[in-house]
Design goal:
13 helices, alpha/beta, Rossmann fold, 6-stranded parallel beta sheet, single chain
Amino acid sequence: MNILLIRLRLIGDVVFTTPVVRAVRARYPAAQVSYLVEAAAAPVVAANRHLSDVITIAHSRGWSRVLDDLRLGRRLRAARFDLVIDLHGGPRSAFLTWTTRAPRRVGYDVPGRSWMYTQVVRRPRTYRARHAVENQWDLLGAIDPAFDRPPSRAHDRVEMPVDPRVAATITDTLQALGTPAGVRPVVLHVSAGNPFRRWPEEAFAALARDLVTAASDRWVLVTAGPSDRAAAHRIITAARARAGDASSRIVNAESLSLAELRAVLDHASLFIGGDSGPMHIAATSDVPIVTIYGPTLPERSAPWRPASLASVAAEPGPLPCRPCDQRVCVPGDFRCLAQVTVDGVRDAAFRLLEARP
């Protein structure tokens, strides 16, 4: 059997598909299972042992995308897939699913695109307080009765295997950044792909200062995505200015790749960040996590892993505008993120740090 899974982006959304990948492999152990993904999120599945092949494409736009997709469509059709599962439901993934001409094409019941599938799964039009992993698991139920069970955080957790080549050099990488050997740093991720999920810079700077000044052997690695490098530099500069003699223990680690970040997390004492791709990469490890939520809900995007692994959600108080569609802040003041205090996040972090052996 020849199977194709499609989830083009984003990083966290690709992480959410990994329980499906494992389940498909378990059900069809002899199948050729391929995964189609855009380059930015490809590291999430690049070392996944349940996949036979990872097809990586560029995130192009305009006429370039049209030409790229037509060429890719011919390639996919020539591969003669028996089953294609569109785990995304966007216009591009739906079109690419259709171009395969596979006899079974499964996707969500999205207006204007349902005709591209041979089997559709109903998806409510309104926002639900239901985890994204559970939403994607619904697609499996349309394929085989064997999948007619809810996914389990304990047995169907998200995964991103560490690349062995990266694991072999990650200690040297940490020391090159300035972190002494044997240190288990706090990883502080200060950016988010969506501006509606970014905690204020001054809050991150104050938190980084509090973390390093509270313990003389604590180091903080500040990480950020490519679009937030300037913000990361401002946060690090502000934090170091406030940290006094501890300033050297605030380390600029924004150069880490996704594969390196995943390897570092196995050496970390704690991860702190917003509802973002790196937070969900952290969920594939056993590191304790503090997630800063603004417009989104933990019910939909909390770390999907066993309850025995420590995770804390730092949330605002009740707000009539939360959750929102993250296209415009109706009140105009980003009050959801502004209400998540430095004291609250710091106290949650200290509790997890004290509880970990």
